[in-house]
Structures are given as C-alpha cells and as structure tokens.
Amino acid sequence: MFDWMVWTTPVAVFFCCIALMLVGMTVWELKSPTTLRRGWLPMETTRGDRLFIGLLIAAYINLVFIGLAGKFQEWLALEAEPSIWISFVLSMLVLALVMRKG
C-alpha cells in the first residue's frame, strides 16, 4: 500500500510528528476552545490556522532542502549531501515559532 513512498526514518518521523500534532491539537481544542488572535501573521488566526500554516511552511522547508542538498554539498565542499535531519529540525523550529508567535 505504501510502496509508492520512500519510507526512510526521517520521513517516518516527520509524518509521525504531524499525526501526533493533529491528535494533540484535537484534544487541546476539546479541552480549551480557541479564540482568534493576532500575532505577526497578517491576519487573525486560531491555533488550527497556525498549525496548518506552520505545516505548509515545514513541508516547503523540507522540499527546498531536498532540492538544494546537492548544491549545498558543492557549495560547502562536503563529502556527502547534508543530512535530512537538518531540515527536519529547522522545519519543526519554524513550526513552533509560527504556533507560538504567529
């Protein structure tokens, strides 16, 4: 069923984190309903809005990193392409920033 996807450890961890976030946000919403709030995003958002925006940004960060990994290897004169864990950590930090300050 999942043969079309390259399930490496970083990919599996990324999707498990997304699933856990969705479950956590559902429980949080049931316990404490959200209200609109204005952060540095150019609109009022709820927690769910910020999660969606943060997940989109996280996905784009990972895609850009994968696309540029070969160039990073050239530019930085590395022996191998940089680890995908770098983009995972960066994308989760950006997601946390959007959730907190967005």
Automatic annotation (TrEMBL):
<keyword id="KW-0812">Transmembrane</keyword>
<protein>
    <submittedName>
        <fullName>Small integral membrane protein</fullName>
    </submittedName>
</protein>
<dbReference type="InterPro" id="IPR018678">
    <property type="entry name" value="DUF2160_TM"/>
</dbReference>
<keyword id="KW-0472">Membrane</keyword>
<feature type="transmembrane region" description="Helical">
    <location>
        <begin position="12"/>
        <end position="30"/>
    </location>
</feature>
<keyword id="KW-1133">Transmembrane helix</keyword>
<dbReference type="Pfam" id="PF09928">
    <property type="entry name" value="DUF2160"/>
</dbReference>
<feature type="transmembrane region" description="Helical">
    <location>
        <begin position="51"/>
        <end position="70"/>
    </location>
</feature>
<feature type="transmembrane region" description="Helical">
    <location>
        <begin position="82"/>
        <end position="99"/>
    </location>
</feature>
